[in-house]
Amino acid sequence: MDWGFIIERTFSAMIGPEVMIYALAAVGLNVHFGYTGLMNFGQVGFMAAGAYGVGVTVFWLNWSFWIGLVFVFVYAAVLALLLGIPTLRLRADYLGLVTIAASETIRLLARSRVMKPVTGGVEGIDKFAEPFYNLSPFELGKFYSFGPFKYLGRDVWVLMVGWTLLILVTLMVQQLMRSPWGRTLRAIREDEDAARALGKNAYFFKMQSLMLGGMIGALAGLIQVIQKSSVQADTFNPVITFTIWTILIIGGPGRVWSPIIGSSIYWSLIVFVENTLRQLPAGARDTLRDTVELSDFNIGMLRFMLVGGGLLLLARFRPQGIFGSREEMALDRR
Amino acid sequence: MTAVESASGALDTPIITATGVVKTFGGLRAVDVDKVEIRRNKITALIGPNGAGKTTFFNLLTGFDQVDSGTITLDGNDITGTPPHRLAEKGMVRTFQLTKALAKLSTIENMKLGALDQLGEKFWAALIPGAWAKQEREIEARADAILKRFNLTHMRDEFAGTMSGGQRKLLEMARALMTDPRVVMLDEPMAGVNPALAQSLLELIKMLPAEGRTVIFVEHNMDVVQEISDWVIVMAEGRIIAEGTPAEIKSNKAVVDAYLGAHHGEDLSKVQLS
Asked: For residues B188, B192, B195 and B199, what is the CA-based torsion angle, rounded to 10 degrees?
């Protein structure tokens, strides 16, 4: 077994593009669920809104990539309004139902033949991100190493911009949650009627929260399609939403840094398990053969199973997540 | 009558009126009130047996439920159908029968939440601490003063979720006062409060009229009603069956009947069953 290779891969995954993109999406979900108590089961829908914000602008309107960046946030805001207006006056579960349905609707609509001139249909959109890569100070096709980390030049550029945005957005959320605005969100999370009785327009605050978290999700979607250099409808499937939830729960909802740490733990575990399984010595593979053949497909499934097992242990022994406090958790049961 | 007295804020005019207020749930007429006037800067008790419609009437007055027909006014202004947060801004605040202390906010955060017109509650201002830090300090000072009065200073930085039931009742009332209300509506303020704490809670309620606040409260405990209220309104089956001073109500036969049954105190073997 090449432990050096496994470790290099794991380290690189720890701060890699997936970690940064999913952490950003989880920051948005944290605003929704962690701070406001909004059950958003369609965060991937906001990511798609961000992705198509730039994709559609370049592909269909033939406008510049840079104008597309504005639409990333416009689409997310419009989606938040569409989802929020009918549901935010109702009980929390309704938003959950509507968001998961809306995110699938977006995906199916985007890949439909009718929408092909606009969204590129199943083929999707590519060649839209050149203006971004043209600014890269790194050679796109060359490998760069920093200590145990090793990435392609294009990824180094994406990572640099992405992590900067992620840290800025995280600090912004931290500042917001320390303010009276954030205090009102947390009050609404605890008991909406109490907040209303004290003069807070709960509906308005929830709408602001949905928009802010959605725009952050859209930013994540934008960076994802830039990193892949293509917009594909089917990459925005519900599994992404639940991965984002997993990440938030690993870190602990309602804590500023938990999306980043949760994402880093999740993706380094996935990469570590996958590479270890791939590198198992022949003897071990043969022993396992009767139980499971270590084909590429099976390894892909096994890594999720093993990480899932780890999550079960987390739920059993540290239900509040990495950053959550047991004391706060106990308050729920009183 | 002078101009001052005839203004809406004159002392002898009612602060709240409810006229022809009806609320039905399915076939049930939960509230059917012809006319009620709540006197300014007095303590009014709303009593009645279980299911009399007290809490529903409370919800209608505070905007948490909508009337089917009828009019509610606050200081002469129609407030029928006004949402709760707007009423709070107009000076009307309520507490809840099941206490709503915000468990995962500290006591002081619970208090600060109650302040109205906070600059830092605006999204863009929230990003710039300098825009609201000064007001926040003022709010915190006010919150600390009220906490002291309610004897909750030792819980200041604890999560509200760690408080006892009685302390939560105190906190909820203290937090309501942070809105600097003209009308304080307390839904069963004494429920689940131990006797020692109950006495201090009563004293705190008694002090409110002198500060220019009107108190309306729902209560089951007749001793409490007798002790602190200036006026008592009795509801049964959605209607108002009597009102008067506590002493009048105590000797009102209709009230005693509604509460205890028409044959209270009689030897049941001698009652003629019709």
From this structure: -30
- Give Cβ neighbours of residue A130 (< 8 Å, ≥ 6 apart): A65
Q: Is residue A320 predicted with pLDDT exceeding 90?
A: no
Over its C-alpha atoms, chain B yields an Rg (Å, rounded) of 20
CATH number for the domain that contains residue A232: 1.10.3470
Q: How far is the C-alpha of A255 from the C-alpha of B246, rounded, in Å?
A: 52
Please indicate, yes or no, if residue A125 is contained in any of the structural domains.
yes
Q: Does residue A198 lie within any of the structural domains?
A: yes
pLDDT digits (tens, 9 = 90+) for B90-118: 999 999 988 899 999 999 999 999 999 99
Q: Where do the CATH 3.40.50.300 domains begin and end in chain B?
A: 3-100+181-270
In angstroms, the Cα distances linking B149 to A60, B142, B200 are 66, 11, 10
**How far is the C-alpha of B254 from the C-alpha of B120, rounded, in Å?**
53
Helices first, then strands: H and E counts in chain A: 17, 4
CA angle, A261 then A263 then A266, to 5°: 105
Domain membership of residue A82 (yes or no) is yes
Q: How many CA atoms lie within 13 A of A17 on its CB side?
A: 18
A334 in any annotated domain: no
Range of the domain at A215: 3-141+153-329
pLDDT digits (tens, 9 = 90+) for B48-95: 888 889 999 999 999 999 999 999 999 999 999 999 999 999 999 999
Closest chain B residue by Cα to residue A254: B104
- Between chains, do A179 and B120 touch, taking CB under 8 Å as contact? yes
Q: Which residues in chain A are closer than 8 Å to B105, comparing Cβ atoms?
A: 183, 186-187, 190
CATH topology assigned to domain B3-100+181-270: Rossmann fold (3.40.50)
Instruction: Return d(Cα A292, Cα A237) in angstroms, integer.
Output: 28
The count of structural domains within chain A is 1
- A213 near A31, Cβ under 8 Å? yes
**Model pTM score:** 0.91
CA A248 to chain centroid, in Å, comes to: 9
Q: What is the DSSP string of chain B?
A: --HHHHSTT-TTSEEEEEEEEEEEETTEEEEEEEEEEEETTSEEEEE-STTSSHHHHHHHHTTSS--SEEEEEETTEE-TT--HHHHHHTTEEE--SS----TTSBHHHHHHHT-SS-GGGSHHHHT-GGGTHHHHHHHHHHHHHHHHHTT-GGGTTSBGGGS-HHHHHHHHHHHHHTT--SEEEEESTTTT--HHHHHHHHHHHHHTGGGT-EEEEE-S-HHHHHHH-SEEEEEETTEEEEEE-HHHHHT-HHHHHHHH-TTTTS-GGGPPP-
Interface of B with A (CB under 8 A): 62, 64, 83-85, 88-89, 93-96, 100, 102-105, 109-110, 112-114, 116, 118-123, 125-127, 129, 132, 136, 159, 161-162, 175-176, 178-179
Compute, in degrees rounded to 10, the torsion defined by CA atoms A120, A125, A131, A136.
170
Distance (Å, whole) CA B99 – CA A128: 55
